[in-house]
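INFO batch 0412 | record 1 of 1 | parsing
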Amino acid sequence: MENARILIADDDKKTRDFVAAFLSYKGYHVFQASDGQDALEKIELNDVHLVITDLMMPRINGLEFIKKLKAMRPEIVTIAYSAFANSEMTANLLKAGAFFYLEKPFNLEELETHVKRGLEHQALQNQSFRTKPCIKNRSLLNNIIGESEKMLSLFEFIEKVADSDSTVLLQGESGTGKELVARAIHDLSNRRTKNFVPVNCAAIPDDLLESELFGHVKGSFTGAIATRIGRFELADKGTLFLDEIGDMKPSLQVKLLRVLQNKELEPVGSTHTKKVDVRIITATNQNLEKLVVTKEFREDLYYRISVIPIVLPPLKDRKGDIPLLINSFLEKFNKDKQHKVKGLDKSSLEILCTYEWPGNVRELENLIERLVILKGSGIITVSDLPEKYRGIKTSMVQEPLSLPDNGFCLNSAVEEFENQLILQALHKTGGNKKEAAMLLNLKRTTLIEKLKKKKLFFAGSPLANS
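INFO prediction complete | emitting tokens
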């Protein structure tokens, strides 16, 4: 393989220099690292095809290094060597993803043979990775779990837009991880050393949101007993994340637009403006384009905040990531709760991988936390799952309708059918009445009237927009 790049990781400089000199003589481009941690840092910065590593190294040993490398860059081929390994260690190395293991002292010609084979293997293996996006700073995206094509494309796009100061609009269903993406953009940007300030526009009353964003001076309104800076000033030179931007009232949208245009703000009750340098990231689970058409959201503000739109995929569109998410949440909650739940059996995992997840990753996380608390230890089985998850397989198969010989009440049947559709719409939207009404092609007020008249109650997560 022409121009192959090889990294040698060994804390013994003599061995490292000796192997490097031989491979350089053979025409390879060689990098050196003094231990596993140093090697990972160099791989972050360089395009490496093959790694040769010693096992006994400080900070990160060879086995842990290979595990971390395979998680970060699975296409890189690794050859390990040591004078102290045994059959168990060799088996663990191969299981971790090592291509070959050599015992020290080894013959350099033998090493070159395995290097050539490793590079041939890498070239063939690379064909399956060629279409996958290249993500250079994966370590800064560790809080976002996913290996599906949709998520890898998302990671690549995040890296591309991070260093820009352009506004970003994150769109996606509730529970898809919009704040995690906003934080990742901040952490990858040149503003990473300054504040990341999140604000949930829907969680703060309208009459307080202006003061929360722009600050106020003492005596500007009842209760303003002291001058207070707002979130914009807290985020100066950093990033301000405005979640649920679609719920912002029109009068406040005008003031936000002015800040975006002029990069200056006026605290409540003040006659003086202040300059601010803030990168704005917004998020919503609503269709802002529809809100623009209905005049509920300003068109000029929409174009200002959506210079770079990013749509986050719902969990139902990346079900291959569900086992990864489950393992991550099990590890997290076992540690937090000091429990020892080992995992899920095959049947329960199949059920969760088939479920549609209207609440997305947040719903899955809440379910795993509940299961860890209730199970305590051992393996989670189907009987441990809440009823709504256990019933998924049978509920997907509908029985054919048949008219009884003695007839039945059509009005009652129609009403029951309507009730089921309303509850399903609420279930799909996590209890959000506005979104449920859109699914049913109803006005929100009409849906609320039907819920009151029918005395229907959604017993899922707390209802939004109540």
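INFO post-check: Residues 392-399, 461-466 have pLDDT under 50 and may be disordered.
INFO record closed
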